[in-house]
């Protein structure tokens, strides 16, 4: 059977939700500058759209932390492939992710970042898959809670494909 994609969350639904999250974040960070940290590669699409909806001053940096390789299950081993360019000491950090699945990536990352003495660290994810959680992670902003299915699009890949889809879909026809 060949791979097909079933739409789970439409482009319009995502746009509406990202707008609402941007508004909420702008209210919560009123009077402050928010330092967005994008977790590459998956978080890139979401961060760009979210940043445009935030009305307080924004700075941003990028980090790449991989554990999935080309499969649909986390290897459990998290490694930093690209670290931040700038120090985060004293900054109000908001980590921007595409998905929290097992929680392993963010559990590890939050610990690493907290040791660098930011003023605060919060987490914003477009998608949350709570049924698959292995590590407990406190998520401050969630776009959508989704069922236990492997999703692609809007930054999320399956074997590096489908990141460019403007919606979130479920891959069908893979073993
Ligand atoms: O909660 P977890 O089970 O740890 O899974 C979530 C992480 O896995 C994916 O990244 P991946 O390692 O596939 O890298 P990518 O963003 O470059 O695709 C996703 O973007 C999250 O960072
Ligand atoms: O459902 C998913 N899709 C794509 N990448 C992922 N990384 C963790 N979970 C997922
Ligand atoms: Mg991936």
TrEMBL record:
<keyword id="KW-0328">Glycosyltransferase</keyword>
<keyword id="KW-0460">Magnesium</keyword>
<dbReference type="GO" id="GO:0000287">
    <property type="term" value="F:magnesium ion binding"/>
</dbReference>
<dbReference type="GO" id="GO:0000166">
    <property type="term" value="F:nucleotide binding"/>
</dbReference>
<dbReference type="GO" id="GO:0005829">
    <property type="term" value="C:cytosol"/>
</dbReference>
<dbReference type="GO" id="GO:0032263">
    <property type="term" value="P:GMP salvage"/>
</dbReference>
<dbReference type="GO" id="GO:0032264">
    <property type="term" value="P:IMP salvage"/>
</dbReference>
<dbReference type="GO" id="GO:0046100">
    <property type="term" value="P:hypoxanthine metabolic process"/>
</dbReference>
<dbReference type="GO" id="GO:0006166">
    <property type="term" value="P:purine ribonucleoside salvage"/>
</dbReference>
<keyword id="KW-0963">Cytoplasm</keyword>
<comment type="pathway">
    <text>Purine metabolism; IMP biosynthesis via salvage pathway; IMP from hypoxanthine: step 1/1.</text>
</comment>
<dbReference type="GO" id="GO:0006178">
    <property type="term" value="P:guanine salvage"/>
</dbReference>
<dbReference type="InterPro" id="IPR005904">
    <property type="entry name" value="Hxn_phspho_trans"/>
</dbReference>
<keyword id="KW-0547">Nucleotide-binding</keyword>
<dbReference type="InterPro" id="IPR029057">
    <property type="entry name" value="PRTase-like"/>
</dbReference>
<comment type="pathway">
    <text>Purine metabolism; GMP biosynthesis via salvage pathway; GMP from guanine: step 1/1.</text>
</comment>
<keyword id="KW-0479">Metal-binding</keyword>
<keyword id="KW-0808">Transferase</keyword>
<keyword id="KW-0660">Purine salvage</keyword>
<dbReference type="InterPro" id="IPR000836">
    <property type="entry name" value="PRTase_dom"/>
</dbReference>
<dbReference type="GO" id="GO:0004422">
    <property type="term" value="F:hypoxanthine phosphoribosyltransferase activity"/>
</dbReference>
<feature type="domain" description="Phosphoribosyltransferase">
    <location>
        <begin position="13"/>
        <end position="158"/>
    </location>
</feature>
<protein>
    <recommendedName>
        <fullName>Hypoxanthine phosphoribosyltransferase</fullName>
        <ecNumber>2.4.2.8</ecNumber>
    </recommendedName>
</protein>
<comment type="function">
    <text>Purine salvage pathway enzyme that catalyzes the transfer of the ribosyl-5-phosphate group from 5-phospho-alpha-D-ribose 1-diphosphate (PRPP) to the N9 position of the 6-oxopurines hypoxanthine and guanine to form the corresponding ribonucleotides IMP (inosine 5'-monophosphate) and GMP (guanosine 5'-monophosphate), with the release of PPi.</text>
</comment>
<comment type="similarity">
    <text>Belongs to the purine/pyrimidine phosphoribosyltransferase family.</text>
</comment>
<dbReference type="Pfam" id="PF00156">
    <property type="entry name" value="Pribosyltran"/>
</dbReference>
<dbReference type="InterPro" id="IPR050408">
    <property type="entry name" value="HGPRT"/>
</dbReference>
<dbReference type="GO" id="GO:0052657">
    <property type="term" value="F:guanine phosphoribosyltransferase activity"/>
</dbReference>
